[in-house]
Amino acid sequence: MNSPAVHAQDLSLVFQTADTPVTALANVELTIARGEFVSFIGPSGCGKTTLMRVIADLEQPTSGRILVNGVSPDQARRQRAYGYIFQAAALYPWRNVLRNVMLPLEIIGLAPEQRRERARAQLALVGLEGFERKYPWQLSGGMQQRVSIARAMALQPELLLMDEPFGALDEITRDHLNEQLLRLWESTGKTVVFVTHSISEAVFLSNRIVVMSPRPGRIIEVIDNALPPGRRLDVRESAEFVAVAHRVREALRAGHSYD
To answer: Using alpha carbons only, what angle is made at residue 193 by residues 187 and 197, rounded to the nearest 5 degrees?
Structure first.
């Protein structure tokens, strides 16, 4: 299959409110290749999450066209072609870690032994082997988010949609999870679409960065990031990292004076 993971053409979305329509997205043109790690960055209210929700078939565009893995978002959702990771881990407190990860596998009717085996494998991938019997309240915030990543990956989706998954965490935990996520992406080859407000996070994780303007949400610039694979946090001190971060910052500034 050679179709891109996401392909949007002239995509717009207008919310009808009580007083006046609100244009959340305007004329978005974007193609994301399979296996890419692409971050959406922009000020609050610029449409980053709205665009991700359109990809996930949680919002319907007013005009334009979008394909996800070569099919409509509705078909992609029905095919379970993506996993969605929210800002909060959203784990069930009465289920232990293993049973939280097994939940989507139960819903699709996978046999008990198969779902246990698959859930254990995903927990091992995110570094939580040995925590299967713990409950969410016994885990740190960062560990809870890793459980939510394992749960999203349990259905073996081709695409991971991540909406500021580390935004509420402290900087040290966030840095640690950024490194782990990068290793996970490199080892699995999944396509990742990631929403963030952090320039540093976007540059560290992504091979392309989509800079969006304030409402109405438009794509100001798509910035290629040629930092090498296998990078560690100390790459943030390099001249190459600083140069990409500067380009993102300048694009964000330009977006504020878009009109």
So the answer is: 115
CA nearest to 55, candidates 44, 71, 34: 71
Encoded tokens for 192: 């990742």
Phi (first) and psi of residue 64, to 5 degrees: 90, -170
Q: Where are the domains of the chain?
A: 6-81+158-256, 91-156
The amino acid sitting at 217 is G
CA atoms within 13 A on the CB side of 239: 0
CA-only gyration radius of the chain, Å: 18
pLDDT tens by residue, the chain, 259 residues: 478 999 999 999 998 887 888 889 999 999 999 999 999 999 888 889 999 999 999 999 999 999 999 999 999 999 999 999 988 889 999 999 999 999 999 999 999 999 999 999 999 989 899 999 999 999 999 999 999 999 999 998 999 999 999 988 889 888 989 999 999 999 999 999 999 999 999 999 999 999 999 878 899 999 999 999 889 999 999 999 999 999 999 999 887 644 4
**Alpha-carbon span 99 to 256, nearest angstrom:** 45
Q: How are the residues of the chain apportioned to helix, strand and coil, as percentages rounded to the nearest 5?
A: 40, 25, 35
To the question of domain 6-81+158-256 being in CATH 3.40.50.300, the answer is yes
